[in-house]
UniProtKB/TrEMBL annotation:
<protein>
    <submittedName>
        <fullName>TetR/AcrR family transcriptional regulator</fullName>
    </submittedName>
</protein>
<dbReference type="InterPro" id="IPR001647">
    <property type="entry name" value="HTH_TetR"/>
</dbReference>
<keyword id="KW-0175">Coiled coil</keyword>
<feature type="domain" description="HTH tetR-type">
    <location>
        <begin position="1"/>
        <end position="61"/>
    </location>
</feature>
<dbReference type="InterPro" id="IPR050624">
    <property type="entry name" value="HTH-type_Tx_Regulator"/>
</dbReference>
<keyword id="KW-0238">DNA-binding</keyword>
<keyword id="KW-0678">Repressor</keyword>
<dbReference type="InterPro" id="IPR009057">
    <property type="entry name" value="Homeodomain-like_sf"/>
</dbReference>
<feature type="coiled-coil region">
    <location>
        <begin position="207"/>
        <end position="234"/>
    </location>
</feature>
<dbReference type="Pfam" id="PF00440">
    <property type="entry name" value="TetR_N"/>
</dbReference>
<feature type="DNA-binding region" description="H-T-H motif">
    <location>
        <begin position="24"/>
        <end position="43"/>
    </location>
</feature>
Length: 276
């Protein structure tokens, strides 16, 4: 584990237990066994650290869900979606609890802009899933369904984060898939229209560029030791700069990096860039 990863890991524990404002850089460095100077070599401020934690948390979940939607059969997709989401929350409860402890005003404008961007990307993935599962039968209500799905996730995740009771994620996922099917089948008075949720033209998540992906690859390669994933990243960067591989080879390289925690977001961006 490199120093940046260590700082992020210890900071999550402190923020979850004490709150963001109550945790000092000094406390973080003491937990890590490093100097303040070493902290500031990795992060310019505590706010920048919090933004990095948000990026890591959201990128892991979004990339997992996007891959699931692209590679699952429609009949199982809702159940698998809910199961994957709740498993992700269960595995990352410390980070999720930070948001329960903090008032929204605690975080700066850049943090809130990032939250907005990730929220819109999440909407896009849910919309893709809904269209795949229900087709044209929910054309008038699909935007309502996006918010219903997000509402289910927000409400039922409280059982994982707030209540000290065992949660059967399999049963919960089946139950929510059933509820979503009922809403999709019987909703006759949709409230949310396409115009209501339409993204602004300058929405930062709308288009992925090869320059953006190359920058992400270079950053992640600098943090990784020699491995098959690092070699695959180097080849994917080469392909973006000077295309020469077949799509089959590109897909193979992407499969090599898909499950590495440093590479999931790059895999997500590549999927959107190549429109696989």
């Amino acid at each position: 584990m490199n120093k940046k990863q260590l700082i992020m890991e210890k900071a999550i524990e402190l923020f979850a237990n004490q709150g963001f404002e109550a945790t000092s850089v000094q406390q973080i460095t003491e937990q890590c066994g490093i100097s303040k100077g070493a902290f500031y070599l990795s992060f310019k401020s505590k706010d920048e650290l919090m933004l990095a934690l948000l990026d890591h948390f959201m990128e892991q979940i979004l990339s997992d869900i996007d891959y699931l939607v692209r590679n699952s059969e429609a009949e199982d997709l809702l159940y698998l979606f809910y199961k994957t989401m709740f498993q992700s929350i269960e595995q990352r409860t410390d980070f999720a609890k930070i948001f329960l402890k903090e008032q929204i005003q605690t975080f700066n404008e850049k943090f809130m802009e990032s939250m907005y961007s990730y929220d819109k990307l999440f909407d896009m993935v849910i919309l893709s899933m809904i269209e795949q599962v229900y087709g044209e039968s929910i054309e008038q209500s699909k935007y309502d369904l996006i918010y219903c799905v997000k509402g289910f996730l927000s409400t039922y995740s409280q059982f994982l984060l707030l209540y000290h009771v065992p949660v059967d994620i399999e049963l919960l996922s089946k139950s929510l898939a059933e509820k979503t099917n009922i809403l999709a089948k019987y909703t006759t008075t949709p409230f949310i229209s396409h115009e209501f949720v339409q993204m602004p033209k300058d929405f930062p998540g709308e288009k992925v560029t090869k320059e953006q992906i190359i920058a992400e690859i270079e950053e992640k390669m600098s943090e990784m030791e020699k491995s098959i994933e690092r070699e695959s990243l180097a080849l994917l960067k080469q392909q973006l700069q000077n295309p020469s591989f077949s799509l089959a080879i590109v897909k193979g390289l992407m499969e090599n990096i898909r499950n590495h925690p440093h590479c999931k977001w790059i895999s997500y961006l590549l999927n959107r860039y190549y429109k696989f």
